[in-house]
Amino acid sequence: MSTLEYRDSPHRSPQETLYEYCWCRNVTKEVRSLKSACCDALVRDACVLLRVLPSLPVTFIPTLLARAVEDGRDRAAQLLVSFWPDSSLDLPAVVGGTCPIIHHPKRVVATTAIVRAFVELSLKGDKDDLCTLNVTGFQVGPELLEFVERKMAVFSRKDTWTSPRYLICDFFIGEPHSFDVFTSLLQHRLSKKVLLFEIRNLEVEGVGETRLLQLLEMLDSDALTGLSVAYNSLQNQGLLRISEQLRRFRGLVALDLSSNGVRRGDVRHYDYLSDTIRVMPRLRRLNIKSCRIGGYLNTLLARCSREITHLDLSACGLRQQDLRVIGHFHNLTSLLLSDNNFFNMVAELISVLLVLERLQVMHLSNCELRADGFNVLWESLRVSGSHLRSLDLTWNKLSEDNLAVIVGDLEAGWLPHLVHLLLPVPSNPSPAYFELIKRLEAANPYLKVQPDLV
């Protein structure tokens, strides 16, 4: 719980986003069925597109816009939006698929151009039919924030505008300067009556507790569905204060409290977090990575909705009773348990895996898994992992024999949906190890195999 500028955050790894593991799909079938060569030519040449747009049927515009965004044609995307036949544009619905725009660099380029054009159109106050632009899944980052700030400064002296425009999007705040720009935008008079921001998902990191508390007080608690406050050095006391503020956001679907230096938490942290989570009935994605609430984590998890689909408990110091509670979340599709010591809890881990039959993502990196007990654990993954798409086993003490078992099962057709497999490298690997890696890659052309240290 991960920009517009496709950021490389200094605080987290690139794949660690608010959305975590969403699997990409192709652009909608209609785009591919619309005389593909003609469609490509139109979005590739903006001058030609500008000449033919007035004579094109309006039913072609969504199809052309989807192709322009998919191919990163920024000028064509701007033109097509200016001819949009409706008062609202839901870009994720037009493009299709479930993977957020942020994960596709070409889509990010085109969507950036669309948002810039919409902002200018709104602030100029020119009459236009497009009043609402929804680009959820696309994060407004530092560069676009500064662009909006400059445009508001230019048009702030204007006296009259047409009806307000609404921009529905996500925001990423990654350092104090971006925080200052963002808060000034929220307080600007134009953002209250001309260009209204509806924030669906917000990531705030690297700004500290004081700024974070200030920002939470300014946000609309009804619109926000995803919130990440990771990497803000809250520590124990800060987590207590933030948890109390979060109770306003009852509609949250995704919440990320990870990596804030919480150590040796006690019953107070359990009480505050428990009370916070209890007022969020729609919560489906919870990330409390590195939050160590010794002895109370299992009780906290027991208070969570059984409908949770994503759970990140990496580096939480899990105990046996914690694993037993995890087994009650039968709807889990993503379970991240890396950096926990399961050396004496393999039996409990196996019991959990056997009942979680919907898992698509499983992370067990650096979990003290040993060669002698791995085959039984792998059997449970094999039996219940018919939907598994991503598996991380890196930094565990496995042997080449364990890898041979994995290769044999994948060659036999087990785990048919697996597309991402991360494996440990044994100490002093022999040539046979690398031959096994080659066999793995040959077993499934769609499978991406990544050994650590290779």
From TrEMBL:
This protein's UniProt keywords: Repeat
Organism: Rhipicephalus appendiculatus
Annotated SUPFAM superfamilies: RNI-like (SSF52047)
Name by which UniProt lists this protein: Leucine-rich repeat-containing protein 14
InterPro entries with a match to the protein in the record: LRR_dom_sf (IPR032675), LRRC14/PRAME (IPR050694)
Superkingdom field: Eukaryota
Gene3D superfamilies in the cross-refs: Ribonuclease Inhibitor (3.80.10.10)
Transferase recorded as keyword: no
GO (cellular component) term, any one: cytoplasm
